[in-house]
Amino acid sequence: MPDMRHIIHADLDAFYAAVEQLDNPELRGKPVLVGGSPQSRGVVATASYEARVFGVHSAMPMATAVRQCPHGIVVRPRFDRYREMSRRVMDIFHDVTDLVEPLSLDEAYLDVTEAVEGGKLPLGVAIDLKRRVNNETGLNVSIGLGTCKSVAKIASDLEKPDGLVVVAPGEERDFLAPLAVGKLWGIGPKTVERLHQDGVATIGDLAAQPDDWFARRFGKRAAAIHAKALGQDDDPVKTERSPKSISAETTFAEDLSEPQELRETLDRLSTSVAGSLERKGIRGRTVTIKLRLADFTTLTRQTTLPRYTYAVEDIQQTGWTLLSAELAPGKAFRLLGVGMSGFESEVERPWQLSLPWDVEDAPS
């Protein structure tokens, strides 16, 4: 592996909504909400930037989005069309380099080291990529360019939409230092709260902490988190991804035994999972719940449905059937999780993404 790598993170802007606006000129310049029906607990898969100014975001219940953005135009997802457009974009990426790691339909890492070593300027590769995507598909892509994946991903998000942020070799730590600590991969909302209590607000604050502090706060993740805070990340661009599950879980402040409270939590977690499935354009058949009892015993229960689905109602109903079978007088729970797996087996879908159970510590 070369000493100096050049990594691009490419992220299509408001992808589903952008495709809808591309195909239907009447939607251009208007707030578009792609997702399920507000009458049936649907969630927002993608909102156009015109809708985002009203505070609408992905995974938000569609009913809430419509209240916040009353003039929003709700459009049902057309995943076949999104997959078609995604393949066109991924083909462009593969023209640039063989080392492409799709993360979902609308984003990917590209290792362009070979092109740079062949005489191209990193900035030139990024500009050409943006131009080609726009000229050949009509879509805008935001790009972050750096010497590692974590820096490139953070960079791509800073000037959306249609952004281009380049972090020069040797400037990684200075680039990251003023940014909010929650922008770092692996630092989710719960961890941000704990870090703020320690006086750690920025990535620079985090990077400055001593090794023993990292060991206490992050355990086995300490070295990896510390390295990423310094802008050091040797994770390679992987050209194959093996999907396993998409899931969400929460740990209760106090043990819960009340069925209604458990049902409400299950519905909320199911909505989060359904939103992830919709955004990625994938469907699964196996619903799993994870339970941790008051004595820390951990249980998993699952069932396989007769058809593939990403519908929130299917996940909620199946999850509740599994959960209700575990309820008993005096039985209390400290953790509840919901997951979907058994995704459709399609060789044309290398972009399915596996997520860890603990999405509470995924980036916000």
Top keywords for this entry?
single chain, 364 residues, alpha+beta, four-stranded antiparallel sheet, 14 helices, 38% helix, globular, disordered C terminus
Outline of this structure?
The protein is α+β, with helices and mostly antiparallel strands and 364 residues long. It is built from 14 helices and twelve strands.
- What ranges have pLDDT less than 50 throughout 5 or more consecutive residues? 346-364
Count of individual helical segments: 14
**How many angstroms separate the termini?**
32 Å
Strand order of the largest sheet: 5-6-1-7-8
How would you describe the shape? Answer: globular
Helix content: 25-40%
Major beta sheet summary: 5 strands, mixed
Oligomer: single chain
Mean pLDDT: 89
- Binned strand content: 15-25%
Total strand segments: 12
Structure description:
The protein has 364 residues and is of the alpha+beta class. The protein has helices at 15-23, 49-52, 62-68, 79-96, 113-117, 122-137, 149-156, 172-176, 189-197, 203-207, 211-218, 222-229, 259-280, 312-324; strands at 7-12, 32-35, 44-47, 73-75, 100-104, 107-111, 141-146, 164-166, 245-256, 284-293, 298-309, 333-341. The strands form three sheets. It has a five-stranded mixed beta sheet with strand order 5-6-1-7-8. The protein has a four-stranded antiparallel beta sheet with strand order 9-12-10-11, with helices on one face. Strands 3-2-4 form a three-stranded mixed beta sheet, sandwiched between helices. Strand 2 and strand 3 form a beta hairpin. It is globular, with a radius of gyration of 21 Å. It starts with 6 loop residues before the first strand and ends in a 23-residue tail after the last strand.
